[in-house]
């Protein structure tokens, strides 16, 4: 299941900001970037939705898997996990989860465990 619209992060400017200024947390299969939210960088349609304590984007390159079906399955898996664990940062944050090459071959429980570990390391979940 996809993330609710209020938790989705879209737009080139917001993702560029995450790459430039976001704090990076890494594991063998995932990279998590976290930055303070800047509502002014959101797309106009996204600003209209109710404010959220966190917004997230999941980036999966063709280096992870050449097959779009596999990449979409991984994206849905991570969206569902993020929706269930619901990060609760003290201030609004933006998150970017990027899969690293080799993540497509990993078992889903291992992938989700690494995601939870990175979220804990960033202080977003207890």
Question: How would you sum up this structure, described in words?
Answer:
This protein is of the alpha+beta class and 126 residues long. The chain has 4 helices and 4 strands. It has a single domain (5-121), classed as Ribosomal Protein S5, domain 2, CATH 3.30.230. The protein has helices spanning 12-21, 44-47, 68-85, 108-121, and strands at 23-26, 30-36, 54-59, 93-99. The chain has a 4-stranded mixed beta sheet, with helices on both faces. Strand 1 and strand 2 form a beta hairpin. Helix 3 (68-85) packs across helix 4 (108-121). The chain starts with 11 loop residues before the first helix and ends in a 5-residue tail after the last helix.
Give a short overview.
By secondary structure, this protein is α+β, with helices and mostly antiparallel strands. The chain has helices at 12-21, 44-47, 68-85, 108-121, and strands at 23-26, 30-36, 54-59, 93-99. The chain has a 4-stranded mixed β-sheet with strand order 1-2-4-3, sandwiched between helices.
Provide key terms for this protein.
four-stranded mixed beta sheet, 126 residues, 4 helices, Ribosomal Protein S5, domain 2, alpha+beta, globular, single chain
Report the helical percentage: 25-40%
The largest β sheet comes out as:
4 strands, mixed
Mean pLDDT over all positions:
89
Low-confidence runs: none
The strand count comes to 4
Measured by DSSP, the beta-strand proportion falls in: 15-25%
Placed side by side, the strands forming the largest sheet appear as: 1-2-4-3
Class by helix and strand content? alpha+beta
SSE run = HEEHEHEH
* Overall form: globular
CATH class: Alpha Beta
- What would the CATH topology be? Ribosomal Protein S5, domain 2
The structural domain count equals: 1
Shape-level CATH architecture: 2-Layer Sandwich
* Rg over CA atoms: 14 Å
- N-end to C-end Cα span: 24 Å
The tally of helices reads 4
């Amino acid at each position: 299941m996809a993330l609710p619209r209020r938790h989705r992060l879209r737009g080139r400017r917001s993702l560029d900001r995450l790459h430039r200024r976001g704090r990076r947390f890494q594991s063998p299969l995932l990279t998590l970037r976290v930055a303070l939210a800047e509502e002014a960088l959101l797309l106009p349609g996204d600003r209209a939705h109710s404010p959220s304590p966190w917004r997230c984007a999941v980036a999966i390159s063709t280096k992870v898997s050449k097959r779009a079906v596999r990449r979409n399955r991984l994206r849905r898996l991570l969206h569902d996990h993020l929706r269930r664990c619901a990060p609760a940062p003290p201030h609004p944050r933006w998150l970017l989860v990027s899969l690293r090459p080799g993540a497509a071959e990993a078992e889903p429980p291992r992938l989700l465990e690494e995601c939870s570990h990175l979220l804990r390391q960033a202080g977003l979940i207890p």
